[in-house]
Amino acid sequence: MAEPKENVLMEKIVSLCKRRGFVYQSSEIYGGINGFWDYGPLGAELKRNVKDLWWREMTRLRDDVVGLEATIIMHPQIWRASGHVDTFSDPMCDCLLTKKRFRADQVEPQSGIVYHYSGARDIAAAKEVNDSFAVLLPAGKPPESARKVALQFYAGRGLPTAELLGERTEKVENSQRFNPENGALLTPPVPFNLMFKTYIGPTATEEDVAYLRPETAQAIFAQFKNVLETSRQKIPFGIAQMGKAFRNEVTPRNFTFRSREFEQMELEFFIKPDEAVEAIHGSVAQVPEQGHPGEPQPNWGWQAWHRYWVEERVRFYEGIGLSRETLGFHVQTAEELAHYARATVDILYKFPFSKRNDKGELLGEELEGIAARSDFDLSQHERFSGKSMGVFDEDFRNAWSKLDEARRAELSRRYHESRLKYLTKSGVASERAEREAKEDADGLAKGQYIPHVIEPSAGVDRLILALIANAYSEINDPDEKGKSETRVIMRFHPRVAPIKVAVLPLLKNKPDLVNKAREIRDVLRPHMNVFYDDAGSIGRRYARMDEAGTPFCVTVDFETFEGIKEGPRAGEKETVTIRYRGATDEENGRQERIAIPQLLPWLLERIQ
Ligand code: ATP
Q: SS3 of 91, please?
């Protein structure tokens, strides 16, 4: 079958990734291991830049977010409390003919005629089996095609010269029960838990089972009280963490997009419940449904905070070169939302492999989800650990004492209602749920509540893939012999580019040029990733840097020692040529002459 056109681009990207050392298959010399990827020299730099930028923007440049670095293996109760042990599963099914495994909800829906068989008989082998089987054929295909597949199936059951039994047909539409590659029936879907299991200690019994974390978020909830007590933060504030996560995905695919080992960058931003905001400020701020709501305000409720974080995250993506047009948004519907979630917006990137809508426009795949998760997570850990996750809020207690009776009763009733809903939905028996919800509502008078949370949760590897796909572009240039050749230019934003600057002496055999170039490299090196290259023609060296996505190339040439002769900067000694690759066509290949002492500030301004 011909590959869809988009995948041609994906294939080029995958091949460039390997050729230039962005991404390799893990354990490649042993044939690889499905769903695991390694980052080569350029990929490792790109990834580090992205993580550093996220960390800087989410924690260091803010007063209201602190960091955490927790272990990958944690107490197994954490995954019971979070719901992962019971419900973190995908439906899985296998092809009855080839045994190929599918995620049942991702099987391409198909329509056509199903040929059912009740079994088969093999006279020569004097054998009959009554295992039923079925094959789906697109309308118009001859029944022989179905029979051929069915005969292969029964041959696999020990009937090499079978005669099919009980053939009947049925028309189906949009069925996900058949293997799209051969039409064979799939096994019924069974839930498959995605957590990787391991054992702690040498006995390896069921009691020693632990899990590799499937997300980084839960450690944040589990350490919430410690961080609150040791960081001098007050609600609202956030805890950020990034690190490895593991999911035993049924069908890893689309290069690194769905991997089994990956990295996440997650923030849990804890806020007051709306009842507390209303008690203090009279009402919660109304925010427009679109656009950034501006600087955080004390009277923000969950909706304003949710909107704020969606827009902040979009700004982050724009700041590293993913324009709004390359992104998509998916607002989860009431049916898609978990029972405790108030709203979730997924930020999507339009990957070359993304599905298209009726108009042929790319829809995009999830880069990050921003969820308003109510007080579910802390409440779960409170119930499972028996440790209080409530906070004492002095401003709230003072405000509460000044409210009139009717207002207190109103806010108390609403808080009680939402606590009761949470407890009942979590399976707490009604009498106990009623008692605990009342205790929680009574806590309001003492200034106590369980914080709510807004969670922007992003995947590092998906972002790296988006940045690579976004940077990829091709140009047609004459090569050294004047023949037109297609070259790849990776147009990374300078903030994420793996190599920030290449320092190139025009000629390798001129000690003056080489020494000056090395001197420049040594000045720049403590501040950024610099690549020194003196091998080959200057054109070839530029081309190599284009493929690596290096935004700036500094060339030391004979003019270097002549200084600037004209214009406002006349008299400046020792200059270099900077050639840059920009996101826009005008910037591409633009050259500028700059005095060497200006070089570091010039570059720093552009890469930070
Ligand atoms: P999906 O629906 O695509 O499986 P998800 O909704 O399960 O993703 P979350 O649990 O919200 O994902 O995880 C947060 C982020 O972690 C995702 O937005 C994504 O960027 C990243 N992520 C999740 N699963 C994987 C994976 N298998 N490989 C790479 N990144 C992942």
A: strand
For 341, left (φ over 0), alpha (ψ -120 to 50), or beta? beta
The number of the ligand 1 atom at minimal distance from the alpha carbon of 266 is 14
Dist. CA 46–CA 492, nearest whole Å: 10
Kindly state the tokens that stand for 185: 């029936």
Measured from the CB, is residue 560 less than 6 Å from ligand 1? no
Mean pLDDT by 10 residues, the chain (608 residues): 63 96 97 97 98 97 98 97 92 95 92 96 90 94 94 94 94 96 95 94 92 98 97 96 96 94 98 97 91 96 97 97 96 93 97 91 95 97 96 97 96 96 93 95 95 98 98 84 87 96 94 94 97 93 94 92 70 84 74 91 94
C-alpha distances in Å from residue 64, one per residue of 103, 368, 381: 40, 21, 23
Residues in the chain, overall count: 608
Residue 456 alpha carbon to ligand 1 centre in Å: 12
Q: How many whole angstroms from 332 Cα to the centroid of ligand 1?
A: 15
d(CA 562, CA 425): 78
- Amino acid in position 44: A
Q: Determine whether the shortest distance from the Cβ of 456 to ligand 1 is under 6 A.
A: no
The owner of tokens 């050639």 is: 579
Give the span between the Cα atoms of 11 and 254, in whole angstroms: 10
Closest CA to 55 of 241, 272, 280, 276: 241
Q: What is the pLDDT of residues 492-506, one digit of tens each?
A: 999 999 999 999 999
DSSP-derived secondary structure for 310-337: HHHHHHHHHHTT--GGGEEEEEPPTTTS
Given a contact cutoff of 8 angstroms between Cβ atoms, the answer to whether 73 and 136 are in contact is no
In terms of Cα–Cα distance, which of 261, 264, 351 is closest to 26? 261
Using a 6 Å cutoff on CB, does residue 546 contact ligand 1? no
Whose alpha carbon is nearest atom 19 of ligand 1? 459
Identify which of 238, 260, 262, 242 has the alpha carbon closest to the alpha carbon of residue 251.
Answer: 260
Per the listing, tokens 């995947």 go with 459
- Closest residue by CA, ligand 1 atom 26: 258
Res 290: pLDDT:
87
In contact, 453 and 341? CB cutoff 8 Å: no
- Expressed in angstroms and rounded, the spacing between residue 12 Cα and the centre of ligand 1 is 24
> Which residues on neighbouring strands pair with residue 115, listed in sequence order?
135, 169
DSSP per-residue letters across 523-567: HHTTTS-EEE--SS-HHHHHHHHHHHT-SEEEEE-GGGGT---SS
**CA distances in angstroms from 18 to 11, 13, 39, 282, 519, listed in the order given:** 11, 9, 9, 58, 32
Q: For residue 345, which of 368, 379, 317 has the smallest C-alpha distance?
A: 368
